[in-house]
Amino acid sequence: MHRLYAQQPPHDTTLYDILQVSPNATAAQITKSYRKLTRIYHPDKQRRNKKNEDEEDRAENEQQLERIREAYEVLKTDKTRLPYHRFGLVDTVHAVYLLTGRFEDAIGRDPNLIELLHLMGYSLDHSAPPPPSIDNFQTTDVGKQIRYKQEHNQRVKFIANNIVGTIRPLVEGSVDEAFLADLVVTQCDRLKKLPMGAQIIRCIGRAYRYAGRKVLRRYHANPKSFGMDNQQPFSKAKLITNPALVTISDSIRDRLRHAGHVMQAAVATGKVIVSKSETVQKANKGEDFDASVSEDGDDESGETPGGFFTNRDPAECLAGFLPPEEDDMRREERAKAQQAILESLEVDALWKISKIDLDRTVREACNMVLEGSMFFGQQEGWVGSSGLVISSSVARIRAAAALVMIGEIMVQRSKEGTAWME
Question: Which tens digits make up the pLDDT trace of 323-349?
Fold first, then answer.
């Protein structure tokens, strides 16, 4: 299993840093460092070394000792270390809470997590809305569909309002692109280290970029349809795509994109089913199972291309020559490693399934903004903070270009310094 951690950078290094070990450290190295640090920060050791230690120092040492113990609980076994290494999860069940907007139920109200939930369309006040008033139909299929539709529409509007709040200063011209770009970079760098943060930011960024480019393609193909001739409403409102793709209709493009996401989810789910089936079959035959986790990705998936995880151990060839006790111990360790890999596959499958809904929801919110209803209502123009009236058409193009810029930053920053591998 050690090769597994050496082949791909970790999602987050916080727990490794606390234990003062490298992300590719062996289990023995982690245990050795843990024992060393617990001796250093043990209250008895501190009292002997610092007789005049004040209350504040003692409290800080106790907190550090608690952090060391918590980090070791996660990193000491592959079952908890692998999900943390790949996704930043200290518990795989947290993936369910996060991807369904209930993460605060398990972790608490971390401001950064709340901000990540907001990007996904979940607020603490509305992530679990009360059932709609459909009386006796609440438990029926129709009632469930109505409730889902209401919750979905609520998410779309919540995301759309957040988007407007983010891009409004740039559309108005009260800030420049560099200023907004710096804010987005700072936000991404803060959120991408959260559990599944890089994956979520990348997915949302791609949805922003896709929706913005869709409007810009129509504008560049026919400016008059936007009520303009050769105006330049925004310096960055350029067509950022392959010219050969202009002939592809948006409807075909949407279907291809959705089909790609569904295929990724199906493949990820299939890996889980096949891996579990092979594990059971080989266990029944008394054979060893070599499970692997491969991450396949393309331009639109945002997943890690080329990553390969395996639990193969070069020393396994000696298994038949080991004493019975050591042979049993090695088999038990392999079984634990196999279980850890299977759980990681399950999280990967859950994410790829959830990504379909997240991408669709964010794009709906972007379309709501770019259609103009979130800006203008029934008005023909938009009065910015400076008092100048911006025409609806110009504002739409500026908003689309702003989304492309923000989306591109989110995609790139989600890769920077994370587990993404070219």
Answer: 555 555 556 666 666 666 667 777 887
